[in-house]
Amino acid sequence: MGILYLIACKKSEVVVTPPPVVVVPEEAVKFSTNLDTGTYYVSDTLPLVITVSTKVPPAGFIYSINTTWTDSSKQIFKLDTTLSVASLSLNIPGHKRMGNYSVQVNVTSKSTSTNTSAKSIAVVNIPILPAVNTDLFPDLNWNDHAAGKNTIYDFNQDGVPDIISYRRVSEKSPLPSIFEIKDYLGNNLYSFNLKDFKPAVRDSLQHIIIDYRDLNNDGYGDFGLSYMGEWWTGQNGAPGSTVKFIGNYICLLLSKGKLQYQPVEVLDEPNKPLSFNLTMFDWDLDGKDDVLLSDLDHGDYLKNLGDNKFQRGTLPKPKFFNQAIGNKLDFDGDGKIDMINFYVNQLDENNRYNSTDMSQTLSVLSKTGVKNYPVVGKTIKKYVYFLGEIESAERINMVDGDGDGDLDLIVGSAQSKVGAPWDYIQEYYENTGSQFEYRPNYIEKDNTLIGELQVWVYDIDKDGDLDLFYPTYRKSTLSNPKGAVFWWENTKKGFKINKKFRLKY
Ligand SMILES: [Ca+2]
Ligand SMILES: [Ca+2]
Ligand SMILES: [Ca+2]
Ligand SMILES: [Ca+2]
């Protein structure tokens, strides 16, 4: 004891008693987020708000956020930041692709690394299927909305897909059908009643063939409407029954800006046999889209002279191809839409072929002219009428299904049944450069699900390749047999049925 006293005296003249050291422990870090309530459904950007309930220590918190696409263990986002505030708000991009994501959030006291709290948030991206619910407008001709088209279209350029078709005034009325533009949200965008434009026009013009291109180069589509008169004198398609289709009326609706149109009468021939065709394309390859009034056999067309001027004329022979199942899409990838035509000989109601040409040919008409490709590996049948149990090819579309950079062919067929619902099949023909070769079962089939003739393409899972889907469905019959919706995922080794989706419309 005496020694200690001596040392203390040497060090200092004054003896002081040190204050007691009191260690105040930091409050344990606690936080919550806006995504704590369960699995969060994301379509791209993830809104994350972290709220810490603990008092902010003088040195602040380290906020760590780590987002992983768990389907491939790919890191999407990583952040470590020190902040002297009790909350952090972020919009994290990069969750576009279909699948499961995990967000790991850590909040740690900057001065005490052991004072930390962590949580993991499950996030899932279920893709949106851009199909339209046909219950929305039950009187519309939904076939024409979908037929011969490639993917969704947006006429008024407002981001909502549109519907172009027609409706009959009523099931029993002979009055001409009404041309309509509507959209997937149920909006009525434009309506054209031929009777208002030309009150004296004859009744019975029930069917309209519709096509569109930007004829006057103002950035909006213009329409060609071909009204057909028809009178059946027998039963539709029955053997021995005679049918008489008479009369055509064609007008153009030329755009005057967004959804404003000037109707122009082009043809009114009440007593001539009609043609089941009206196709807008640059048929004479001079750079301006023209209006083919009949079919390529007749070659009767309106040559586009520019500035809303057209000249009636006849396309020179030889014609490009035998017009059959068509679509328009950019086949060669030059940014310009090409005309696609799939010819296969057609059988009538007495099983007689329409032509002696037994080829199966896909023709592509582009600004450089026509190219023809044999379609091989399966004998494809096409019928004028569905009688009994037959399989008939009706629609085509194209998509790069094997990821080699060229477009492959999809043929949509119906298999008619007697006294039972029909089946629908989509079949794949791979583009080998010189021809299209049948690849059986490349597109998965399940006849218990919904079926239609026309398949459309869209990158549904947002992985950069085009997937397949049926453009329409019925919300009221989703749970019925053959009512359930699905899409096909492009795996580059086949199109696989996928039942994960959300219906936006
Ligand atoms: Ca729209
Ligand atoms: Ca032209
Ligand atoms: Ca290909
Ligand atoms: Ca895809």
Task: Describe the structure concisely.
This protein is mainly beta. Helices cover 4% and strands 43% of the residues.
Q: Characteristics of this structure?
A:
505 residues; mainly beta; 8-stranded mixed β-sheet; 5-stranded mixed β-sheet; 3 helices; 39 strands; elongated; disordered N terminus; binds calcium ion
Q: How is this structure best described in words?
A:
By secondary structure, the chain is mainly beta. The chain is 4% helix and 43% strand. The chain has 3 helices and 39 strands. The strands form 11 sheets. The chain has an 8-stranded mixed β-sheet, with no helix packed on it. A hairpin with an 8-residue loop joins strand 24 (325-329) and strand 25. The longest helix has 10 residues, at 2-11. The structure holds calcium ion (CA) (4 copies). One calcium ion is lined by residues 459-461, 463, 465, 467, 490.
Name the beta content range: 35-45%
Fraction in helix: under 10%
Q: Which structural category do the helix and sheet elements fall into?
A: mainly beta
Q: Sketch the major β-sheet.
A: 8 strands, mixed
Tally of DSSP β-strands: 39
Identify the overall geometry: elongated
What are the bound molecules? calcium ion
Numbering strands along the chain, what is their spatial order in the largest sheet?
24-25-27-28-33-32-31-30
Radius of gyration: 33 Å
In terms of per-residue confidence, which ranges show pLDDT below 50 for 5 or more consecutive residues?
A: 1-11
Determine the number of helices (DSSP H or I, runs of at least 4 residues): 3
Terminal Cα span: 91 Å
Mean pLDDT level: 92
